Give the backbone structure.
Amino acid sequence: MNKRWIKTSVLSMVALTLSACGGQTGNPDQAAPVEEVVVQNKMPDRPFIYAAQQNVGTIDPAKALDGTEMITMLNLYDPLFAPEREDGSIAPVPHLAEEYDVSEDGKTYTVTLREGITFHSGNPLTANDVAYSMERMLGIGEGNSWLWSELLDEKNVTVQDDHTVVFKLNKPYAPFISSLTQLFVVDSNLVKENEQNNDYGENYLSKQEAGSGPYTLKKWDRETQIEFEGYEDYWKGWEEDQLKQVQMKFVTEESTVKTLLVSGQADMVHSFLNPSTYEEFKKQDGIVVQEDPSALLQEMPMNTQKAPTDDLNVRKAIASVFDYEIANEQILGGSTQAIGPVPASVEGHNENVLVFNRYVEKAKEYLEQSAYADEDLSVSFMFIGDLAEQRQYSQLISSKL
């Protein structure tokens, strides 16, 4: 069951702000859902403060997954490729990479790196660091390693010279370059110096960073906040108005988030608050609610290995009883239902896929066709309790089932 958020995670927008890459995203004329970013229009004489309702669970690029962790990755580290932001296409473009070449059979990617990039340690960034970063991802097997686990073997990531790395895939895979937006390159020399019992530096990177990104890690209190400080020698340089001191505070209560922003004790909040909260913000002097087209989907995955959702017809019944109109209009404040798993603004979107709508009688038919037709069924639905929208989803799906 896919719906498109009215607001994408401001987390990505924060990352853009912190790394100071600039530029608006999205086409303002595109008929698409929007994301809402809230910022104060004046900066006080203190670090820029972003209030998030979710803690950062890890700062290890081989383990990071969720939005707040991605903020950390995007600001402490650099990926090989990054989404194009100038024209809103979000197509992957070279970042640490300078250019790349693909073999005729679509299985060999030769990536040339930019020269002159240094890690925060002062060590130069080379192809050895890229190869080690992929080896580390596959070796640890967590985070986004699933993107490459069936695609690459460690031995098939080779270094051609200091600035050229070669990936030999087990099979052609069209989104490979897109997947490399999630490969954050670590300082292999620094990490290897701090390895313990061949742990790929897991213990070290659970507390420290080894990146080349626009910011260094100044402080991390796992329960309250994470602090970033600008890296003066960042390879993309700095402009006069870009933020050098930034704090991301973890605030779980929405009422507290609102108070911090309205009182001027926070400068930006994320997009997982109630839509009504953003309407309140619009009425406040000194607060800007920015709305941009979004490519983010809200999905509710179902366990295909556990009864009763191991049955296709049970899954179809759940998909047919969910109230998409209420979810999009009332919970998300005006979003539209997604068509397939690929957003309309992303290459590969297909309009000609099956779309479920609320149709109770059809849901009953699906249940009758399932292996559990004569049984009373019970399902467990997990959600993020700290997020208002997630709580509302859980209430909606529970009531409709």
